[in-house]
Amino acid sequence: MNKKFDVIFAGELIEHLTNFEGFLNSSYNNLKDGGNIIITTPNVFSMSFFIYAFLGRKTARREHTCWFSWDTLTNLLELYNFKVLKIEYCKTANISFKKGLKEFFGSFFVWTCENLLPRRIGCRDMIIIAKKVG
User: Fold this and answer.
1) What pTM was estimated for this model as a whole?
2) Which of 31, 83, 85, 126 has a Cα-to-Cα distance from 54 of 20 to 30 A?
3) Cα separation, 34 vs 132, whole angstroms
């Protein structure tokens, strides 16, 4: 089957991979000319991750193999013939008392970072849209 796609969406996937070459070559080969890939991944430069690391708390899940910044993911995509069109940062905080006081303060901290800091360092997740070129 030689079906080509307009868009490939890889949500919260790339940070779990060990073979970026295989993933990006496969994505490239399965996109129509000018097609887009949308990738979401944790933002390594998020202030909340720095604070957690400073406090000695775990910042990554066991199955994560790597971290990305907007810059490193842009460089990786360009190596495999993609042109980054847009980078966005998404807010994820959900403040709630349901899980207890500790979780409330953690979610309040994340909410504060997301709403008071520049998005590039305030938000824990990023979205990158890139176009197939070449």
Assistant:
1) 0.89
2) 126
3) 5
**Amino acid found at 16:** H
Place of tokens 């966005």: 88
Structural domain containing residue 55 = 5-132
When pLDDT is cut at 50, 70 and 90, the band that residue 95 belongs to is confident
Which sign, positive or negative, has the C-alpha torsion 43, 45, 51, 55? Answer: positive
Query: What is the Cα–Cα distance from 29 to 52, expressed in whole angstroms?
Result: 39
Starting at the earlier edge strand, list the strands of the sheet with 82-90.
5-11, 31-42, 125-132, 82-90
Question: At 82, is the secondary structure helix, strand, or coil?
Answer: strand
Strand ranges for the chain from DSSP E: 5-11, 31-42, 82-90, 125-132
Q: Which CATH number does the domain housing residue 47 bear? A: 3.40.50.150
pLDDT in tens, 97-131: 777 887 888 788 889 999 999 999 999 999 999 99
Number of domains in the chain: 1
